[in-house]
Amino acid sequence: MRAVRLAALNDFDEWRAAARRLLLDAVPPDEVVWLDPTTPHDLFVSEAAVEQVTERRVGVVPQRFIDWAEAGICHSDPERFALLYRLLWRLQKDRGLMEARSDPDVGQLDRRVSAVRRDAHKLKAFVRFRSVADASGLERFAAWFEPEHYVLERVAPFFVRRFTGMMWAIVTPYRSAFWDGENLEFGPGGHKADVPAEDAMEDAWKSYFASIFNPARLKVAMMKSEMPVKYWRNLPEAELIPSLIRGAKAAEAEMIERQASIPPSRHMRRAERQVDEVVPEVEITSLSAARDAIEGCRRCPLYEMATQAVFGEGPAHAEVMFVGEQPGDQEDLAGKPFVGPAGKVFDAAMTEAGMDRDRAYVTNAVKHFKFVPRGKKRLHQRPNMGEVKACRFWLDLEREFVKPKLIVALGATAVASLAGSGTTLSSVRGKLTELTDGTRMFATVHPSYLLRMPDRAEAARERERFVADLREIGRLLG
Amino acid sequence: MTRLTLPRKLAILSDAAKYDASCASSGSVKRSSLATGGIGSTEGSGICHSYAPDGRCISLLKLLLTNFCVYDCSYCVNRSSSNVPRARFSVEEVVGLTLDFYKRNYIEGLFLSSGIIQSPDYTMEEMVRVARTLRETHRFGGYIHLKVIPNASPELLAEAGRHADRLSTNIELPTDVSLETLAPEKKPSAIRTAMAHIEAKREESRPDGKIEGKRKPTKLAPAGQSTQMIVGADRATDATILGRSAALYSGYGLKRVYYSAFSPIPDASSKLPLAPPPLMREHRLYQADWLIRFYGFNVDEIVSGGADGLLDLKLDPKLAWALAHRGQFPVDVNRAARELLLRVPGLGVRVVDRILSSRRHHRLTLADLARMAGSIDKVRPFVEADDWSPGGLTDDAKLRGKLTPAPKQLELF
Question: Nearest CA of chain B to the CA of A379: how many Å?
Fold first, then answer.
């Protein structure tokens, strides 16, 4: 039987050096007794000091073991060193051991690691610094904390990253940590009396704690599971909890009791001023008035899920008006027509055909984006005839005010909107037709059609056809 | 008017903020004060520094800059027709409180909201000033969450995003009609447009891998945007609420939608229902929302586990769905794909991942499953394992009764 006494409670490197020595000597786990500095001396075993072994490779372990061992060694269980050595020993023969969560040793270490991580997290959360008065006027902070495991060394760097510009100390029963603004140092453990008993901000903090609590939602078990009672004695706000719980029912009843009273005079004065601000229904007499009015459009249900109505854009008296189907995802966010992928195709084709988009009025048959949500995307949905008909009100206004010489229908929906649902795109594609009011209409495909074609050669041909149609439009405009 | 002391203001303006459900401090970029010599860090996961007796995490100093408000939203305790005591912080007072609390490790940062005073731009500018002072004057590296005032200018929203970790714009109610009835001054399209502006700006600020050598643009609101919806103040069903959420998640890349059961407020408007909805409804909505985001369910599937567009209050939505779709079970834990395993009641994402990694080594028995899942009462009728087949259990007419918890356990406390 060999006894190994470690100088520190939780020093992974020290344990590793000892474990390497033992592994090199092929000492099986059941022939080692591990002692930490607090374990009393055992008369029946002789203790060996840890001696360093050369940096020769002794054994191989997966990274997960190292990570878990670094955490597991901070557990307060006196058996922690032995458990790690047993696993290390078994890992030499069974490389995949760490994957077997159903193994009792692996399961035990897993639970130890979780407990250490939880305790480390609580240290981050529940440390309460108190300001230390200093004659020189320098502000310093100190906190008393009672962790369940030996986690201070693991968590101290977190406090350094968080409170670099502050001088602080955290005192625990087994160890203390000090940060002076430049160096992190550890010292012996201490007592609650080593840190101040109060702080000037504590009353404000308690006032905040009491005010942010909603008495109508009392859930004491939930609070206790996240903030176990064992931590309460060092949390200044915790002393309020019993009285807040006791008073909750009465506080809720009082909130309900205090039903609507007479509004304050400030509100009444403002309400009086606002009476005249109600906008009466007026006839829409200009393009910009139409643009304002469409914001409140309720002609079909599409307004409710879309971000905003996307009205047409372009010179008020453009010679040509392009009508697409509906705004897509990006148009919906930006509030402008043809800015997404199809818009890019459209712009490039226009340039190639020698046309100037800035001189055209560009709009859509339907002004709100229709989609179904799928995870993080919105999938475009084709508008139905009811929606197209409802939205024709706005398209008609645009036609009335812009009075274009030529209207270009992009795709089947635009054709149906302009020429009626009986007209198909294939019957009018590339042709000049006349709408009921005498305006000339030219029909071609929607640029998004070119984006959806899987066959590259065919897509290139179709694109050529589209550009040719745009050239034809340019020619028709003269 | 008599001058209020700072503690009195703190009491009024934190009380006024307590009805907002969102208080997370997670998901931001990593920041350390080692680089600046200042105060404050964020490390990805948020930290709850305390818990109120209502079971809610206290991670941020949640305040209103002022609870004066020109709007008159029925559900809000701060509406202009309410007789609550009013107060207003100065920018410096909020900055001072945040730093003093942060240095004592009471909080992860600040969550600042405000009643609307003068104009949306004026109000937003004041809130931005708080964030800017903290970041620039005091080198504050902690978490900042700013509430967006709809209708504030896009430039102000962008500046808010440069200083804040998270921005949120509250949608408040799932339908435009409800919002117009209960919050006449709020324009639903303005709320959505604000979210769209932020999403578009965030998209622009995302580092583009293709540009080399150029300095990465600063990430805008790195913890993303969120919103809050009030449940039970109108007659909307859970289907309507979740449908709205799905549209918000997909449209604006929202990180979270918070559901807040309408709570009794002092001096309540007569437009509100007399009784608050059960807190369990709020809980079920969170569960359903989670299943939609991480388990591949869609809204229609989730609500099909209940009736009339409402989730079942007695059972969690995944169990309710499974009971209504027993034809899809049992699922073989040794062979089924991840997506199918995720649909088994009682198996969470972590357990499913453990099943997948363990079954590469050996075939799984019910006991293996129990070790990995903790409890398998809910799981058993829906799975097959090496030594287990549920037989007629899956289709047992009494199964629902067996899996329904006793009524007294339904209480949330």
Answer: 9
**Tokens standing for residue A32:** 């080692």
CB pair distance less than 8 Å for A207 and B357: no
Best residue of B54, B57, B283, B411 to probe chain A, by most A CBs closer than 10 Å? B54
CA distances from residue A99 to A114, A295, B354, B387 in whole angstroms, order as listed: 16, 59, 9, 22
Distance of CA B327 to the CA centre of its chain: 34
* Nearest CB neighbour to A162, from listed B33, B261, B270: B33
Neighboring chain A residues of B185 at a CB cutoff of 8 Å: none
Retrieve residue A83's tokens: 């458990």
Alpha-carbon gap, residue A64 to A88, rounded angstroms = 12
Could you give the CA distance from residue B149 to residue B159 in angstroms, rounded to a whole number? 13
Q: Which residues of A touch B354 (CB under 8 A)?
A: 101
**Per-residue pLDDT tens for A179-225?**
999 999 999 999 999 999 999 999 999 999 999 999 988 899 999 99
Cα dihedral across residues A260, A266, A271, A272: positive or negative: positive
Residues A346-359 have pLDDT tens digits of 999 999 999 999 99
Strand order across the beta sheet in which A2-5 lies: A32-35, A2-5, A47-48
E strands within B148-193? 166-168
Residue B260 backbone dihedrals phi, psi, to 5 degrees: -125, 110
Average pLDDT over every residue of A113-133: 95
Whether residue A267 and residue B72 make contact (CB cut-off 8 A), yes or no, is: yes
Q: Which among A241, A249, A240 has a CA at the least distance from the CA of A223?
A: A241
Q: What is the predicted ipTM?
A: 0.91
Least CB–CB distance from B250: residue in A215, A217, A378: A378
Please state, in angstroms and rounded to a whole number, the distance separating the CA atoms of residues B357 and B210. Answer: 36
- In angstroms, the CA A323 to CA A467 distance is 16
Contact assignment for B103 to A99 by CB distance below 8 Å: no
Strands (E), A249-381: 320-324, 361-364, 371-374, 377-380
Cβ contacts of residue B291 below 8 Å, gap of 6+?
A: B297, B302, B317, B318
Strand duo A2-5 + A32-35: pairing = parallel
Q: What angle do CA A419, A424, A430 make, to 5 degrees?
A: 85
The number of C-beta contacts closer than 8 angstroms across A and B is 256
Distance from CA of A377 to the nearest CA of B (A): 5
**B159 against B396, higher pLDDT:** B159
Contact A212 B368 (CB under 8 A): no
- pLDDT tier at B413, thresholds 50, 70, 90: very low
Angle between helix B91-103 and B6-15 (nearest 10): 90
Closest alpha carbon to B237 in B183, B189, B315, B307: B307
Mutation target vs A (from B104, B107, B267, B295; most A CBs, 10 A cutoff) = B104
Distance (Å, whole) CA A437 – CA A426:
22
A212 vs B47: CB contact, 8 Å cut-off? no
